[in-house]
Amino acid sequence: MSARAVAAGPAGGAIVPRLVIYGLLILFCLIYLLPLFVMVVTSLKTLDEIREGNMLALPREVTFEPWRQAWGSACIGLTCAGLKGYFVNSIAMVVPAVVISTLLGALNGYVLTKWRFPGHRWVFGMMLFACFIPFQSVLIPMARVLGALGIANSTAGLVLVHVVYGLGFTTLFFRNYYEAFPNELIRAAQIDGASFWQIFRRILLPSSGPIIVVTVIFQFTNIWNDFLFGASFASGEAAPMTVALNNLVSSSTGVKEYNVHMAAAMIAALPTLAVYVLAGRYFVRGLMAGAVKG
Amino acid sequence: MATEAIAGGAVTRQGAGDRLRAWLPRLVLAPSFAAVLVFVYGFIIWTIVLSFTRSRLLPVYEFVGFDAYVRLFAQPSWWVALQNLAIFGTLYIAICIAIGLLLAILIDQRIRGEGLFRPIYLYPMALSFIVTGTAWKWFLNPGLGLEKVVRDWGFESFRFDWLINTEMAIYTIVIAGVWQASGFVMAMFLAGLRGIDGEILKAAQIDGAPMHQVYRRIVIPMLRPVFLSAFIVLAHMAIKSYDLVIALTGGGPGNATELPSTFMYSYTFTRNQMAVGSASAVMMLMTICAIIVPYLYSELREKGR
Amino acid sequence: MALHTRLLAGTALLAGLALATGARAQVKEVEMVHWWTSGGEAAALNVLKEEMQKKGFAWKDNPIAGGGGSQAMTVLRARVTAGNIPTAVQMLGFDIIDWAEAGVLGDLNPVAAREGWDKVVPAALQRFSKPQGKWVAAPVNVHSTNWIWANKAVMDRIGAKPPTSWDELVAVLDKAKAAGVIPLAHGGQAWQDATIFDSVVLTTGGPDFYRKSMIDLDAGALGSPTMKTVFERMAKLRTYVDPNFSGRDWNLASAMVIKGEAAMQIMGDWAKGEFLNAGKKPDVDFLCFRFPGTQGSVTFNSDQFVMFKVGADRQEAQNALASATMSPTFQSAFNVVKGSVPARTDVPDTAFDACGKKGMKDLAEASAKGTLMGSMAHGHASPAGVKNAMYDVITKHFNGQITTDQAVAELPKAVAAAR
Question: Mutate which of C96, C97, C246, C382 to disrupt the B interface (most B C-beta within 10 Å)?
Answer without folding.
Answer: C246
